[in-house]
Amino acid sequence: MSAVCAQCGKSFEPKFEYQLAPAPGGIPGPWCSPVCIPVAQELNCSVCGTVFEPVYAWQAEGGLAFCSEACREGESKMAQVLAVMNQKGGTGKTTTAIHVAAGFAEKGDRVLLIDADAQGNVGASLQVKGPGNLKDLMLDGRSLEELRVEHSPRLHLLTADAGLAVIDLHLPGMKGRSRALQRALEPVKPHYDRIVIDCSPSLSLLNQNALCAADGLLIPVSCDYLALVGVRQVMRTIANVQELLGHPVQLIGVVPTLYDHRRRIDRQVRATLLERFGDKLAPVVRQSVRITEAPGHGGTVFDSAPSSRGADDYRRLVNWLAEGNWRTD
What we know:
Layout: E1 3-4, E2 11-12, E3 43-44, E4 51-52, E5 60-61, E6 64-65, H1 69-74, E7 80-84, H2 93-106, E8 111-116, H3 121-126, H4 134-138, H5 144-147, E9 149-152, E10 155-158, H6 167-170, H7 180-185, E11 194-199, H8 205-213, E12 216-222, H9 225-244, E13 250-257, H10 264-277, H11 289-293, H12 301-304, H13 309-323
Parallel strand pairs: 7-11, 7-12, 8-10, 8-11, 12-13
Antiparallel strand pairs: 1-2, 3-4, 5-6, 9-10
Helix pairs in contact: 2-13
C-alpha cells in the first residue's frame, strides 16, 4: 500500500511504524523519512523528560522525542503491555488485572493499570476515582499526568466511569480507529516497565484497541463451561486482529480462577485447558474469602491479607509471568 509524504509529497511504501505515526505535537503523517518529520522548537524527551531543542532527525521519531542517543537506546526498554480479557463476565478478570499489576509493583516494577471497562471496577475495588478516563487520553488529548491516580509510588491507575461507554460511538469515525489506544500510549510507555489493561467483557472497538496496543494477552477463566466459551470467543478475536489488522498478539497465559479442587467441574475445566493450552496454562488462583474481602478494605489481598492463600496464589501467578512469557529483560 503506497502513501504520500505529508511533508515533501513523495510517494513511498511505508515499512516502519514511525512513517505512519503522528509527529511530536500530534501532527499527522505519513512521513517518507525521519528528515521529513516536522519538529517543534522545544521537545520533552520521551524517556527522561528533559526539555531540549532537536538538532538531528532521529531526535523526533514516530511521535517520540529523544534528547540523547542514550535515551534513544533506552526507548527499546519501554513498557510491555498486557491486556487482561475474557468475553464472559464473572471470571475474576478485574481482580486478576489488579493483582498482576500490584504484584509486579511489589516486585519493584513501575506499573500503570488502565481500566478499559466503563463499569469502573478497578477504581471501585481500590476505592479511588481519577479525574478522567481512557476516553480523555485517547480522544481528547489530555495527558496521563492529568488523569492518573497514584495507588502507590510504583503503581499508577487510570480509572474508568460510565463516561467511557461513549467511546465506541466516537471511534468508528476516526482514521486508524483500531490503533487509537496504541498511539495514545506511545508517549506513556517510556515511563513504565509494565502496563496492564483491564478490558471489558464485550466485543467492542475499545477491546480491539486494547489488543492492538498489547504485546500479550492474559485470559482469566472461571472453572465453568460458559467461561470456556468466552475463551473461544477471545481466541477468535485474536485471530481476527492478527489477520485483519496485522498486529501479532501473543497469548501469555490462561489463568484458572475461583478454583476449588473439591469440585469435579473445576478439575475437568482445568484438564480441558491443559490439553488445549499446554504450557500456557498458568497456576490456578483458588477461591478465597480474603480475595473477596479485599475491595472492602480499599486495596489488594497483598495489603489486607498478605499471608493468605489468595495472596500466595497471585504472587505465584506474578512469578510465573515474570519467569516465563511476560519477561521484560
